[in-house]
Design goal:
Blueprint (H helix, E strand, L loop, with lengths): L2 H35 L2 H13 L3 H14 L7 H10 L3 H14 L4 H4 L1
Length: 112
């Protein structure tokens, strides 16, 4: 094989490797960001901050997003009900507790 052909192959391999690494890095970053958006704990942390600021309706909404992103884990409905209660939204608070029991009828916290 001529010397010029080897250089072209080496350049091609080097360029291909670098481009592939960059593409994989971008894909991993996008996937990590997308998975972080689905983590219910992020919404729960946001809700706790809103509760501390007295923004109870917004906090309840954040807890409901945590519920949605958790695969309907009823544990997020208890703090949502508490937020509604603190906002004097008693009907919505009761609704959240009832929903917790509907999702999982063995969920004791929603029945207390």
């Amino acid at each position: 094989m001529p010397n010029g052909q080897r250089r072209i192959n080496k350049r091609f391999v080097a360029t291909f490797t670098i481009v592939t690494m960059l593409v994989l890095t971008v894909i991993i970053a996008v996937l990590m960001r997308a998975s972080a958006r689905r983590d219910p704990e992020i919404f729960a942390q946001r809700a706790e901050i809103l509760m501390a600021r007295g923004k109870y309706i917004d906090a309840a909404s954040a807890y409901l997003k945590a519920l949605h992103h958790s695969g309907q884990d009823p544990k997020w409905l208890i703090p949502a009900a508490d937020a509604y209660f603190k906002a004097d939204e008693f009907g919505r608070a009761l609704g959240a507790l009832q929903r917790a029991v509907i999702i999982d009828e063995t969920f004791v916290e929603g029945q207390e």
